[in-house]
Design brief:
Blueprint: H1 4-19, H2 26-38, H3 48-51, H4 59-70, H5 76-90, H6 98-139
Helix pairs in contact: 1-2, 1-4, 1-5, 5-6
Protein name: Co-chaperone DjlA N-terminal domain-containing protein
Organism: Nostoc punctiforme (strain ATCC 29133 / PCC 73102)
InterPro entries: TerB-like
């Protein structure tokens, strides 16, 4: 469920992602302002200083916001949605800084453990099916 708090945290993450390379590009600035306006946060007292570049966002703050947004056990869908949102911002200026690429890579790494459990579950299910079939065969 998307709550106003989650939307605000997402906008904060996007602002942090724009700052992660030390400066906001003009295209990123435009993108952020459009997003903040669309989400009704352009005049939010917490968001406004970062959005209008009155206060820079440190990379650690951005990563802290990501952890807060995703929580302890993020779903694959949550990670993918966040990656998609950040990618839209990062690619808005046509270039990807090393720090921006690192952020996307870390998000993809967070998503991988959840994704890698699926093959294990599939293997386990197949083993259970084999055991069940053998049991059925023995019973008949």
């Amino acid at each position: 469920m998307v709550t106003p708090s989650n939307v605000k945290n997402l906008v904060k993450i996007l602002i942090g992602a724009a700052w992660i390379d030390g400066r906001i590009q003009p295209e990123e600035r435009q993108y952020l302002r459009e997003i903040a306006q669309a989400k009704g946060l352009a005049n939010d007292p917490e968001i406004k200083p970062w959005l209008y570049e009155l206060v820079p966002v440190q990379p650690k703050e951005c990563y802290d916001w990501v952890r807060e947004y995703l929580g302890d056990r993020p779903s694959l869908e949550d990670c993918e949605n966040l990656i998609e949102a950040i990618s839209g911002l990062i690619y808005s200026d046509g270039e990807v800084a090393v720090e921006e690429a690192r952020l996307l890579t870390e998000l993809q790494d967070i998503a991988k453990p959840n994704d890698s459990t699926q093959p294990i579950q599939t293997k386990l299910l197949k083993q259970i099916q084999k055991l069940y079939r053998r049991w059925v065969d023995v019973q008949t």
